[in-house]
Specification:
Elements lengths: L6 H4 L2 H4 L43 H11 L6 E4 L3 H11 L6 E4 L6 H8 L3 E4 L10 H7 L4 E7 L11 H9 L4 E5 L21 E6 L12 E4 L2 H10 L7 H11 L2 H23 L4 E4 L6 E6 L2 H10 L5 E2 L9 E5 L3 H20 L1
Parallel strand pairs: 2-3, 2-4, 4-5, 5-6
Antiparallel strand pairs: 1-7, 6-7, 8-9, 9-11, 10-11
Helix pairs in contact: 3-9, 4-5, 10-12
Length: 357
Amino acid sequence: MNNSFDLNKILRPHILNLAPYSSARDEYTGHVGIFLDANENPYGSVTPENFNRYPDPYQADIKKKLAPLKNISTDQIFLGNGSDEPIDLLIRATCTPSKDRVIILPPTYGMYEVSASIHDVHIDKVPLSEDYQIRVDAVLSAITPDTKIIWICSPNNPTGNVMQDEAIMAILENFSGLVVVDEAYVDFTDKPSWIGRLSAYPNLVVLQTFSKSWGLAGLRAGMCFASKELVKILNKIKSPYNISQPAQAALLAGLDATDKMENMVKEILEQREVLCTMLEKLSLVNKVYPSDANFLLVKFDDARSVMDYLLNETIIVRDRSKVLLCEGCLRISVGTQEENVALIEALKAFEEKKEII
């Protein structure tokens, strides 16, 4: 292993010595008492439910429930406002603007590039192969002394496939910066999470979300799993109360409903196979790519025309036809049985319309 990872070496120097904001709840984490420390309204809220108290800034109760589900310690968990918050914080913690660099592997999730651009961080793009796998030699060749993070989405968005273990391990073992594996769609694949390998790779960071399999996209809650030392840094630089009290209450309730989550995932997987079969029977479909996610990447003869027709039918899919290596493709989320049937009927109607013309 050529990796000589040292977290202190990749952090921005002033972050190491930063004095974090000390919130009113840092000194007392209990739930009972006379709270005269945070300048809150003691009489309640203007809403029927009382939101007059600030939420737990470190979401301790959620982490206690989440840790055994992920087989990890609570101090290796960072919870953020969606996965986008830890993405942003990881860049802020490590990358000096106008100097440092990150590597992304297009086609991939767009927020890695957006966040880097916001912070004026250089972006080196190493496209995936034609079969949407990591080109390890090209990635390793793109690394410079100023490269701080390599972003890997697996299962990948928008292609839906899982990246090969050997490729990710090769990068982890030959790069002294952070390797972030974004597993937003991990619950839709039978491949194991990279969380189980955090102890083996100190430079590994794993992202997950409550938005997909848990059905909690409206709460904006993401999970980041990393070394205790890196989680301390993320807690140090995050906003004090980054997950609201209503969101925390809903997350706690959701973590008690793992059976429901698993049943929804099972239904989505069944519908994914049905939808794939129905799409492959359509003459206007060139290819349905294999998927380990809750969506399908579908190549059409004329993707933009199909997209426009579906929009007119109030069926909204995602146009990926201008994305590198996804030319002519639409990304279609797996819906309910009724929604999937409506989609197929609309596509059949479009086929018939084209034949008449």
